[in-house]
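2.7 Reproducibility. Because tokenized structures are sensitive to small changes in the input, we list the exact sequence used for HAD-IB family hydrolase, including any N-terminal residues retained from the expression construct. No trimming or masking was applied before prediction.
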Amino acid sequence: MSGLAWLTRRRHLATPRSVLAGEAAAEAAREAERAGRAEQDDAPRESRRSRRSKQPDGPDSAAQTDAGKSAESPPEEPEFPVTGDVRAAAFFDLDNTVMQGASIFHFGRGLYKREFFDTRELLRFAWQQAYFRIAGSENPEHLADVRASALSIVEGHRVSELMEMGEEIYDEYMASRIWPGTRALAQAHLDAGQKVWLVTAAPVETATIIARRLGLTGALGTVAESVDGVYTGRLVGEPLHGPAKAEAVRALAEAESLELERCAAYSDSSNDIPMLSLVGHPYAINPDSALRNHARQHGWRLRDYRTGRKAAKIGIPAAAGVGAVAGGAAAAVALQRRRR
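Resulting structure tokens (single pass, no recycling of outputs):
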């Protein structure tokens, strides 16, 4: 048993590349948030009023929250999140926590429809998705295969091109796959005056689009290098996965003057135990068996928004994608220069 625990600890250790990936993701997220605020400030007053009157994209989930709670949830809990606590924030994993399935696969389907790549590459995406369903674990070799596929596809394309396509693909393949129960949890943090961030190995531009369409603060995602707005086919650090997610949350919390003990984090995967362990309020959402056991042992709260049939199946882990918003790429270059 001690040997197994040692292996688990080694798997969760951060490396210099995961630290770099986390810092790049944090800088990209803050840059995107600043750009979004500037855009709102520049918009006509009537347009801003119209935006505030609209509900965020996604299902109206407030009435469905109680129906999605697992029988394992405690019957009574103290008031949370705490209204007005500006030193607290919430961090949500994306794939199978906020969204059903792997976002990079849905994005790939949309790109294929637009003849962005050929049938052979689509079949590779489909095989990877099937593997995630069957294996129920984020095998490093398969994650590396996904990463290599995605990098080869976007190399030479403009960041703005994928951002424009991403908006359309969200409407076509992603909007209907948001878990209403998880969406309600995120909204509760927003209503309490807290910031809410997605944290995902998916492309940062995809994650940013999803966060904005759901009315969230922003997203921490995998950052790909770009030069003059064109993808080079290289990552900044490594995919935002496992320990890298924890490093991103840590870096963002420091930059935003947050107290992690007052923050919350939500995920379905045992690979996110490093991130969940950072905060004072960890939640296991639609958990895989390893995370479910870990959560029970440590007294973490559980929520399962799947139907009985789906809950019995193995969840779909996050696929490691690549990408960057323009501001994120600039931030990543600045980070690399400071490290030299």
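Residues 71 and 303 are 9 Å apart (CA to CA).
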